[in-house]
């Protein structure tokens, strides 16, 4: 003899459409957010080796300055000259006084002169928390 179980009317009226909508919105949000996080690391730069290097952990207030082997400065995907870089650093300092961090990502074949230029500009605009990225 088969037992019949009455599941009630609650499960029959449960709609999954809003739940599916929320899942799709979360999926789209995380796909877009991941794309923006990778944008700074897209430039093809060969980083120098360092024996004591630690993994780079991105913090919310970091600013990346990429230097190519030819000595071009890239910030947020734009090529900047020295004056424009100084203005970008000054603006970053104005937005986050005392907390602005700068990560300098120089190509292994880039001359030290360009790295020193970025460090000097950081000091000039009062940014003391800068570091050189290595692999």
Number of helices: 3
- Order of strands across the main sheet: 3-2-1-4-5
Work out the radius of gyration.
24 Å
Tertiary shape: elongated
General description of the model:
The chain contains three helices and five strands, in the order αβββαβαβ. The chain has 135 residues and is an alpha/beta fold. It has a domain at 43-132: Nucleotidyltransferase, domain 5, CATH 3.30.420.270. Strands 3-2-1-4-5 form a five-stranded mixed β-sheet, covered by helices on one side. Helix 2 packs across helix 3.
What are the main properties of this structure?
single chain, alpha/beta, Nucleotidyltransferase, domain 5, five-stranded mixed beta sheet
Summarize the SSE layout with pairings.
Blueprint: H1 17-38, E1 62-67, E2 73-75, E3 78-80, H2 82-95, E4 101-106, H3 112-124, E5 129-132
Parallel strand pairs: 1-4, 4-5
Antiparallel strand pairs: 1-2, 2-3
Helix pairs in contact: 2-3
């Amino acid at each position: 003899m088969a037992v019949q179980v009455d599941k009630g009317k609650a499960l029959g009226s449960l709609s999954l459409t809003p739940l599916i909508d929320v899942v799709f919105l979360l999926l789209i949000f995380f796909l877009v957010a991941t794309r923006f996080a990778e944008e700074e690391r897209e430039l093809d730069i060969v980083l120098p080796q360092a024996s004591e290097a630690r993994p780079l952990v991105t913090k919310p207030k970091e600013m990346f300055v990429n230097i190519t082997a030819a000595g071009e400065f890239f910030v947020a995907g734009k090529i900047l000259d020295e004056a424009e870089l100084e203005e970008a650093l000054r603006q970053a300092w104005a937005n986050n006084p005392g907390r602005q961090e700068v990560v300098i990502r120089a190509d292994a074949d880039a001359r030290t002169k360009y790295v020193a230029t970025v460090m000097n500009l950081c000091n000039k605009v009062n940014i003391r928390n800068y570091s050189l990225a290595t692999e």
